[in-house]
Structures are given as C-alpha cells and as structure tokens.
C-alpha cells in the first residue's frame, strides 16, 4: 500500500502538464531513437567492413527506425522527427507556424545527441576501422557513418534536385497515408506503412546522395562530426568519399 502510494505521488510530480513541453520531449525522444538506430545501422556496416551489414541492412535500419519513432511519440507530438514534415504540416495548417522553429531546434538537437551516442557505442570500432585517424575521404573514412555525402559524379545542382525529389515523394506519400479520404490504413499500422514508404525511397533514390530525406538527420550529426574530430571538411563538397544513408 505504501509503495503504491509512493509511486502515485512520484507519477504526479513527474507528470508534464504543459502541452508544448510534452510535445518537445516527445519530438526529442522520437528523433533521438530514429537517428540512433539509423546511424547505428550505418556504423555496423562500415566498421565491420560490411561483414555484419550492407547497404540493404542500413536502409532497413533507417526505415524501421522511422516506425519505432512514430510508435514512440506519434500520440503526443505526431512524431514529426523531420523539419521538412513539420514545414508541410504548417502549410496544411496542422501545425502552428510559431511551433515550427521550436520543433526544428528540438529535432536537430536530438540528432546531434544521437550522433554522440553512436560515437560512444561504436567508439572502439570506429578507431579500429579508421586506423586512429578520423577522415572524411579515403578508403578508411568514417564521416559517412554520421552524415550523407554525394557520389563522386554528382554535381551540386543534381544533388539539390535529388534531395528535392526524394523529400517531395516522402511528403506526398505521408500526406496520402494521412488523408482519411483515401484508402485507409488499418488503425495502428500507419507507422509500418510509413516505414515501407521510406524503404521504397531509399531503395530507389539512394545512390546519388545517400538519401537523407531529413534535414535534422543530416545537420545534427554533421555538426557533431565537425566538433568531435573530423573538422570543417565535413561541410565541404569533397570527391572520393563514401556515402552514408538511412
């Protein structure tokens, strides 16, 4: 009886009543989980010399991570996890414009934190694979674990178009899934369908730039690699680099 009473009081003290704070915490947690799984899939592929993962497993990790993120916070904030999606929600008046910059900051912060967590998780593997040197290009580069980089043949214009089309397909697909006037997705299975949508885009549009589809997913980890030892080169368009991806 005493234990039950203590737990009830603790729950009351820990309960967050402010709706905006609840939504921000939900976005923080869901985005953290999304990027943690996504980058871990890439780290496992790269640091194992593709003996314990490949391009398909990294794509699956990214797609399934979207599903986990939506199940984690979909009922609180909508689990946007992506500034592009938050922007789309503002355009259709499903999210107030004043919340947009707040969501973007939270999503980017969560991505930065996730990159730090993956760096800690794979610390020994990264340093072993890289022979003790953190590089952005070359045969033992490790920057692509955290952020996406274009293939050697991709121009800036083509890379920009690649991301516009890929992200556009993602948003159109999400809008179609959410539209109640369309063929309905069985209740509770929406995150699974969204994961399949992401997987289809990754599998068909990932070769040019690694298919990030999510500004927060790219910016947060890229900033982390800059401050963690890879340097400012992570922001430059450099040839000869591998490609990370979702």
UniProtKB/TrEMBL annotation:
Its main location: membrane. PROSITE patterns: MIP. It is a multi-pass membrane protein. GO terms for cellular component: basolateral plasma membrane. Keywords: Cell membrane, Glycoprotein, Membrane, Repeat, Transmembrane, Transmembrane helix, Transport. It comes from the Eukaryota. It holds the Pfam family MIP. The chain crosses the membrane at residues 20-39, 59-79, 100-122, 160-178. InterPro entries: Aquaporin-like, Aquaporin_3, MIP, MIP/Aquaporin, MIP_CS. GO terms for molecular function: glycerol channel activity; urea transmembrane transporter activity; water channel activity. It catalyses: glycerol(in) = glycerol(out); urea(in) = urea(out); H2O(in) = H2O(out). SUPFAM superfamilies: Aquaporin-like. PANTHER family: AQUAPORIN OR AQUAGLYCEROPORIN RELATED (PTHR43829), AQUAPORIN-10 (PTHR43829:SF13). Homotetramer; each monomer provides an independent glycerol/water pore. Could also exist in other oligomeric states. This is Aquaporin-3. It comes from Ptilonorhynchus violaceus (Satin bowerbird). The lineage of its organism: Eukaryota, Metazoa, Chordata, Craniata, Vertebrata.
């Amino acid at each position: 009886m005493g234990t039950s009473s203590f737990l009830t009081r603790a729950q009351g003290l820990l309960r967050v009543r402010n709706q905006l704070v609840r939504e921000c915490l939900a976005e923080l947690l869901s985005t953290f989980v999304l990027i943690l799984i996504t980058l871990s899939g890439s780290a496992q592929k790269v640091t194992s010399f593709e003996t314990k993962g490949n391009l398909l497993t990294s794509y699956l990790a990214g797609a399934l991570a979207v599903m986990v993120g939506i199940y984690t916070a979909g009922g609180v904030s909508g689990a946007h996890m992506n500034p592009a999606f938050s922007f789309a929600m503002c355009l259709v008046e499903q999210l107030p414009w004043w919340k947009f910059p707040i969501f973007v900051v939270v999503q980017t912060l969560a991505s930065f934190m996730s990159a730090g967590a993956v760096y800690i998780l794979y610390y020994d593997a990264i340093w072993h694979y890289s022979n003790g040197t953190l590089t952005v290009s070359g045969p033992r580069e490790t920057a692509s674990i955290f952020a996406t980089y274009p293939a050697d043949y991709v121009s800036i214009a083509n890379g920009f178009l690649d991301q516009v089309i890929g992200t556009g397909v993602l948003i159109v697909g999400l809008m179609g899934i959410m539209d109640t006037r369309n063929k309905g997705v069985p209740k509770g299975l929406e995150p699974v369908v969204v994961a399949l949508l992401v997987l289809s885009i990754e599998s068909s549009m990932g070769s040019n730039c690694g298919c990030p589809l999510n500004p927060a997913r790219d910016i947060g980890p890229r900033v982390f690699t800059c401050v963690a030892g890879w340097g400012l080169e992570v922001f430059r368009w450099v040839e000869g680099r591998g490609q990370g991806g979702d």
